[in-house]
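Hey, can you fold this one?
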Amino acid sequence: MPPTILRKGRLLLTIVAAVVTAACAVGPDYRPPVETLAHDFHGSAAMEQRTGAVAPPPLSTWWTGFNDPELNLVVSRALAQNLDLAQAVARVSQARAGTKAALSALLPSGRVTADAARAHQSLEDQLGRVESASPGFNRNGGLYDLGIGASWEIDLFGGLRRTREAAEAEYQASDAARAATQLTVVAEAADTYVLVRTLQARIDLAQGQARTQQKLVDLVRLQYSRGVASEFQLRQAEGQSADVASAIPGLETDLNSALNSLDVLMGSAPGTYRAELENPGAIPHAPAVQTADGPTSLLRRRPDIIAAERRLAASNARIGEAISGYYPKISLTGLIGSSTTVAGNLLSSDANLAQGIAGLRWRLFDFGQVDAEVKSAKGKNAEALAAYRLTVLEATAEVENAFSALVKHEAQIETLSAGEASLARAQDSASAGYHNGALSLVDVLDAQARLQRTQDERILAQSAAAHAAIASFRALGGGWGDDVTEVKIAALR
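Sure. Predicted structure:
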């Protein structure tokens, strides 16, 4: 190609690039919403006054604060093997590919074409009849083409840039959603582990009570055989024993389901890790929870809030993408190459060809549809803003509810523990009184039933406190580290 044409082409590209750089993208520029939140959580004071809690663990690895090695192992397996989390990671890859596609639309695209064809002309069609009358006509022919082409849509009004902004924000939202899934997986694994330990404790309690009741039945049966106890007393003792024993199969069924659910959370077939958890363990004790950062920290820590904010940013960019439909779109296309019917002449100067095209597309008579697209984009942006604000409010409520539940359940544990100690002494007194003839069997059974209910309620309160602690850490955005710093920074723009 002649140097003069090359110089002119470079000058044209320079001018176009300068225009594109200086041009403003149509549509509103994004500004993150400002949320007015309280300085402290309402439940912070009560949380700081908790007694018996160990030092607060880091939010990113809060489960280590329970000081339970088996729980740590369960969570680590869930993070490595959970299939819901694997799906979320795959969705991030898809969103990242969409970002790259949007970026590539801003750049020139090129292509290389090469064709070689051989043809044998028919003498019976119209062209064959005409050509056959020409001197030196040859029915066999060929066509050889080689070309290099490029095209570029000049983003004068920023529609493509808005598309790229939207794709980037959607990718960041997907990455934050992946982190939110991680939080859910960790919390569910910990909750299910606590449930397993709770059911094991309740089964152990029920089995101990069943043994005690059976000893009482054996004692009454002996007394009945000697004429000391009535048949009514024997049947009453047998009924109480059966009532206690009947609860065990239901608890064992629930334990089996919990163990299966835990295996699935760890990405394994039911029964894979059952042997490791068969021996009963203590219900984990809730550690301290750090509350000093207050509600504003949720905007940086909660991945669901970050995802909602990024979706809001994407919807804002889509408004500009829709508005760009009012403006013309200009494209440049160029082609250089060689075309000949003789293979040996393919790159000769006579076979060279060049082509340049400047294109204009403008939806000049389609503004009604563009109006609809803009209104739709603005409506989706308003919806995204409301969804973001609702997510912030719900997150704050989740924290407050979890804090309240943790404090109240721990208070309940203290009350039930004191009551359990008193009722245990009452049961001992009733048993001694029955042996001495001072109390009836009804008094013994009543004392045992009261103690049984209180012990079971204390176990359930311990379980509820552990669940509330897990809910507190999850509500605060705990369970992920700095592996998505890009998303966290984006939320603060």
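The first strand starts at residue 109 and ends at 120. Let me know if you want another pass with a different chain boundary.
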